[in-house]
Amino acid sequence: MGQLSAGTFDLLAAPGHLIRRAQQQHQARWGELVGSGLTSAQFAVLAALTAEPGTDQNTLAGALSIDTSTLAEVCLRLASRGLIDRERSEADARRYRLRLTPSGRSLLDRHIPAVEAVGEALLAPLTERERETLLGLLRRVIGA
Question: Residue 2 has what pLDDT?
Fold first, then answer.
């Protein structure tokens, strides 16, 4: 895209535009390095379940900032592939408790290096200090 004339909106100063462009870069690198066998949302679910086995679907949706209906679909797909177990909660039959299966753990472990490579590719233009600053600022933006 050519240079915008004076007085036009500066897209390179618009946070939403920059975040969208960064997400596009992330998706492109994910496709190259991780492939199509595991989405970033599926990876997030598997990774979260290693830290919080037995968490319920609603709690996980909140923790990952994924709407509950989308997370339900992600979990159904992971369960159909034998990567997670979904069990009805004994305390509340409306809730599902989620656990990583050994196959899920194995898949997660195999993909961690590629996911780390995605992050490395995204942050490659930055110094170590800039990386730490960017990640810290992004955590503040999302309220983490």
Answer: 54
Q: Does domain 48-118 have CATH number 1.10.10.10?
A: yes
User: Which pTM does this prediction carry?
Assistant: 0.86
Nearest Cα to 122, choosing from 135, 111, 110? 135
Structure tokens at 1: 């895209």
Q: Give the rounded percent of residues in the chain with a pLDDT score beyond 70.
A: 94
3-state helix/strand/coil string of 60-121: HHHHHCCCHHHHHHHHHHHHHCCCEEEEECCCCCCCEEEEECHHHHHHHHHHHHHHHHHHHH
Host H or E run for residue 53: none
Write down the domain spans for the chain. 48-118
Torsion of CA 108, 113, 118, 120, to 10 degrees: 140
Torsion of CA 112, 117, 120, 122, to 10 degrees: -110
C-alpha 16/C-alpha 24 separation (Å) is 12
